[in-house]
Recover the amino acids of this structure.
C-alpha cells in the first residue's frame, strides 16, 4: 500500500496523510483533491519526511480522489517554499498557497464566459442600468467583476443580459500569448551599458546562480542593460521574471518593453481579473508566458522553465510584505535564483545598505553605471534652509523655489514638487476647542481630503464627510488644517502661478492604469507645466523637459526616528532628484529643510553618496542592525487591550536568556491601535550568526493564548 503526505490549505491542519488508490500515480508536488470529512480539499503531495505530522494508522487512511491536470510543483520550488516558511517563521501552507495563485486556474476547463456591452442604447433606462452603461464602456469580465466595477448588484447586470444590453463572450484561457521578439528593436548601447549587458548575457547562457547588483545613477539606462539579458533568455527559450515594486510603475515599463520586444509581457498582480489570472497562471506553468512582470507575489509561481530574475528598484520598501507571510521579495528573489540555479539582477540607483554590504563582501557582483545615458548631467542640488528663507505665512514654498518655478514656466520647462503626504492636511482641528479628528480604529489622525471632501484614515480606510460643525463643541465653520499635504501644495501653486497647468499625482487621483497612462502622455506631450506628487512620481518616469525638482519637506521622513529613516530619506530624495534634467537641458533640485546639517541632507547636497553609506554603515554597526546584526519583531494584538498586554507580557516573561540575543519590550507598537486591534511589540536583536528562527519557534510554539489574541512574527522587519 502506498501512502502520501499532503500539504493542505487549512492553517489548523497543515499536513494530512492519505492513501494512493490503485492505478493512480502521484508525484511529489502533484496537486490533488482529497476528502476531509464531508468536504473535498486541495493538497500538494510532499516528501513525508519533510513535513512533521502524526503517523496515521493505515486502516484510517482515506484515498486521494484525483490529481489535477497541471504539472506538479518542481523540487526547486518546493525547497524555496520550505526555505521561506522557515526563514520568516510562516506556515508552510500559507507560502505554498502563493504558488497556486488561483485555485480556479487549477480546475482544468480551457474556457470561461465573460460579458461586455452590446452597444445597444435604449431610449429609456433605469438609473442603475444607465450608471452601469457608463461604467462598463470598454470593459469585459465576469458578472461579479463587472458588478463591482459599476457598483451595482449582479441582479442588475443579469437583467441587462436578458434585455440584450450585455452579451456573453467565450474566452479561451489557453489562447497563447504572442511571442516576444528579442531582436525587435535592439538599442545601441553605451560602452558602460555594453560591459554590464555582456556580464548579464554570459550569466544567462551559463545558467548558474549569479546575483548581480546593478548600481546605476538615475537615467543611466539600467533598463536597457537588463533588457539584453531578457533578450538572451528569450533566445534560449527560457522564462524571465521581472519584479516591480508598484503597479503604478508598470504602465511605463510595459511601453518600454513593448518597444523593445514587440509585444507586451504577461502581467501578474493582485488586481488582475480572475480570468486574466487564470490565463496567466496556466501560461506560466506551461511555459507560454515568456516574460512575466509582476508584483512580489509573482515570485512563488511555478515557472515551467525560469532562466532569469530581475528586481527593478530593488531598494523599494514595497517589496516587503507586511501582513500574511511577512517576507522581503528582494531577498526571496535571490533565494529563488539560488534554488533555480539562474542569475538574478537587483537594479537600483540607491541600493539598500544590506545589498551594498553583500556586494562589498563579494556575495553579489556589483555592476556600475556611473553616468547618465547620452551625456545628460546629474542635476545640481541646492539646499534651502527654511529657517532663513521662510515661506510667507500660511504658505509652504520658499521664495527661491517659487522664483525657480516661475523661471521654468517662462522657459516652457516643467517642474516637479514632491511631498510624500496624501490629502490636504495631515491634521485637522477645531479652532475653538482644539478638538482633533482621530480615527476610531487606529492611532492616527484623520487626513482631510478636499478633493473628495472627506476625512480619511490612511491605515484602515475609515472615512467621514468633512463635518460642518465641530463634533465636540458644536461651533460651525471652525476647522483648521494643520500642515501641508499634496492637495494643499497644489492649491498654493494654483494661487501663485494661476497660468500654470498643474497635475496632482497621488494614489487618490491616479489609481488606475488608464489614469496613469493619461498623466504620462500629458506630461510627455508638455500639456503639464507643474507636477505635484507623492512618492508615486519619484521613480521610473522620464520627462526630458522636466528641469526643476522641489522637495517640499525633506525632514518629513526623518521624523519617525527609526534606524532606516536616514536611508529612506536618502533614497526618496535621490530618486525624485533623478527625475530632473534627464534630457538635453540641465536639471536643478531645491531641497527645503530645517536641518541642512543632517548627514543625509549634507550628503545629498554634496553628491557624496559614499560618505552617506559609510556614516549609515557605522550607525548600523553600533546598533547591531542589519547587515551586522539581526532584528525580529513579535507583534501581539487583540481587540481587548488588557488581553493583548497580558499576552505580550507572557511572551516577554518567557524570553530565553541567551548571550547573543537581546529582547526589548513589550511596548506599544508604532501603531498602537490598528483597525480596531491593540498592538504591543517585542523587538529581538541578535547576532548575525545566531539561530534566530529556531530560538523564536522554541520560545513561542509552546505558548498558548486566548482566542482573540494574534501573535505575528516579523523577521527582518522594515523598521526597528
Ligand atoms: P534608469 O532606469 O537607469 O534611471 P532608464 O533605463 O530609464 O534609466 O534610461 C534613461 C533614458 O535613456 C530612457 O529614456 C532610455 O530610453 C534612454 N536610454 C538608455 N539607454 C539607451 C540606449 N542605449 N539607447 C537609446 N536610449 C537609451
Ligand atoms: Zn484607521
Amino acid at each position: 500500500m502506498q501512502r502520501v503526505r499532503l500539504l493542505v490549505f487549512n492553517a489548523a491542519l497543515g499536513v494530512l496523510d492519505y492513501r494512493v488508490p490503485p492505478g493512480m500515480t502521484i508525484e511529489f508536488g502533484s496537486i490533488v483533491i482529497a476528502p476531509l470529512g464531508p468536504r473535498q480539499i486541495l493538497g500538494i503531495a510532499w516528501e513525508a519526511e519533510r513535513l512533521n505530522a502524526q503517523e496515521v494508522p493505515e486502516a484510517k487512511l482515506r484515498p486521494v480522489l484525483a490529481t489535477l491536470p497541471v504539472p506538479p510543483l518542481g523540487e526547486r520550488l518546493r525547497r524555496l517554499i520550505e526555505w521561506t516558511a522557515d526563514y520568516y517563521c510562516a506556515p508552510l501552507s500559507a507560502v505554498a498557497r502563493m504558488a497556486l495563485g488561483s485555485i480556479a486556474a487549477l480546475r482544468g476547463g480551457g474556457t470561461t464566459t465573460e460579458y461586455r456591452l452590446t452597444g445597444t442604447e435604449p431610449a429609456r433606462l433605469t438609473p442603475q442600468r444607465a450608471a452601469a452603461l457608463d461604467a462598463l464602456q470598454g470593459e469585459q469580465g465576469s458578472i461579479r467583476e463587472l458588478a463591482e466595477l459599476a457598483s451595482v448588484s449582479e441582479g442588475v447586470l443579469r437583467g441587462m443580459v436578458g434585455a440584450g444590453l450585455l452579451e456573453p463572450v467565450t474566452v479561451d484561457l489557453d489562447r497563447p500569448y504572442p511571442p516576444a521578439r528579442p531582436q525587435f528593436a535592439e538599442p545601441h548601447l553605451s560602452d558602460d551599458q555594453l560591459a554590464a549587458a555582456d556580464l548579464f548575457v554570459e550569466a544567462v547562457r551559463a545558467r548558474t546562480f549569479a546575483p548581480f547588483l546593478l548600481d546605476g545613477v538615475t537615467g543611466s539606462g539600467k533598463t536597457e542593460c537588463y533588457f539584453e539579458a531578457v533578450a538572451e533568455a528569450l533566445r534560449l527559450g527560457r522564462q524571465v521574471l521581472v519584479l516591480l515594486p508598484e503597479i503604478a510603475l508598470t504602465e511605463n515599463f510595459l511601453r518600454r518593453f513593448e518597444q523593445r520586444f514587440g509585444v507586451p509581457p504577461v502581467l501578474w498582480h493582485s488586481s488582475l481579473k480572475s480570468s486574466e489570472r487564470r490565463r496567466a497562471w496556466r501560461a506560466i506553468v506551461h511555459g507560454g508566458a515568456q516574460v512575466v512582470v509582476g508584483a512580489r507575489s509573482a515570485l512563488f509561481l511555478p515557472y515551467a522553465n525560469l532562466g532569469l530574475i530581475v528586481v527593478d528598484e530593488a531598494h523599494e520598501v514595497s517589496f516587503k510584505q507586511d501582513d500574511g507571510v511577512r517576507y522581503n521579495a528582494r531577498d526571496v528573489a535571490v533565494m529563488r535564483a539560488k534554488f533555480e540555479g539562474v542569475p538574478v539582477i537587483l537594479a537600483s540607483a540607491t541600493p539598500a545598505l544590506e545589498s551594498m554590504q553583500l556586494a562589498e563582501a563579494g556575495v553579489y557582483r556589483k555592476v556600475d553605471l556611473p553616468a547618465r545615458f547620452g551625456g545628460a548631467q546629474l542635476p545640481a542640488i541646492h539646499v534651502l534652509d527654511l529657517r532663513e528663507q521662510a515661506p510667507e505665512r500660511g504658505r509652504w514654498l520658499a521664495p527661491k523655489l517659487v522664483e525657480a518655478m516661475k523661471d521654468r514656466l517662462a522657459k516652457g520647462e516643467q517642474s516637479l514638487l514632491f511631498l510624500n503626504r496624501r490629502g490636504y492636511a495631515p491634521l485637522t482641528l477645531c479652532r475653538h476647542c482644539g478638538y482633533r479628528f482621530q480615527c476610531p480604529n487606529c492611532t492616527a489622525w484623520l487626513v482631510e481630503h478636499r478633493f473628495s471632501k472627506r476625512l480619511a484614515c490612511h491605515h484602515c480606510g475609515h472615512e467621514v464627510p468633512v463635518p460642518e460643525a465641530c463634533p465636540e463643541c458644536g461651533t460651525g465653520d471652525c476647522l483648521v488644517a494643520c500642515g501641508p499635504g499634496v492637495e494643499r501644495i497644489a492649491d498654493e501653486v494654483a494661487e501663485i502661478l494661476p497660468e500654470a497647468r498643474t497635475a496632482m499625482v497621488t494614489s487618490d487621483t491616479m489609481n488606475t492604469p488608464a489614469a496613469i497612462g493619461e498623466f504620462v502622455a500629458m506630461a510627455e506631450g508638455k500639456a503639464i507645466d507643474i507636477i505635484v506628487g507623492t512618492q508615486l512620481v519619484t521613480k521610473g518616469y522620464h520627462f526630458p523637459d522636466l528641469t526643476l525638482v522641489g522637495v517640499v519637506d525633506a525632514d518629513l521622513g526623518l521624523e519617525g526616528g527609526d534606524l532606516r529613516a536616514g536611508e529612506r530619506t536618502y533614497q526618496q530624495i535621490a530618486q525624485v532628484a533623478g527625475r530632473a534634467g534627464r534630457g538635453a537641458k540641465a536639471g536643478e533640485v531645491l531641497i527645503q529643510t530645517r536641518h541642512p546639517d543632517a548627514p543625509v541632507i549634507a550628503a545629498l547636497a554634496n553628491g557624496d553618496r559614499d560618505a552617506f553609506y559609510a556614516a549609515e554603515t557605522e550607525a548600523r554597526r553600533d546598533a547591531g542592525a542589519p547587515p551586522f546584526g539581526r532584528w525580529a519583531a513579535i507583534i501581539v494584538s487583540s481587540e481587548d487591550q488588557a488581553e493583548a498586554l497580558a499576552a505580550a507580557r507572557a511572551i516577554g516573561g518567557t524570553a530565553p536568556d541567551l548571550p547573543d540575543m537581546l529582547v526589548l519590550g513589550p511596548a506599544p507598537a508604532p501603531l498602537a491601535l490598528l483597525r480596531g486591534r491593540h498592538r504591543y511589540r517585542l523587538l529581538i536583536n541578535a547576532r548575525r550568526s545566531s539561530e534566530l528562527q529556531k530560538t523564536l519557534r522554541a520560545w513561542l510554539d509552546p505558548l498558548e493564548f486566548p482566542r482573540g489574541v494574534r501573535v505575528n512574527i516579523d523577521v527582518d522587519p522594515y523598521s526597528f
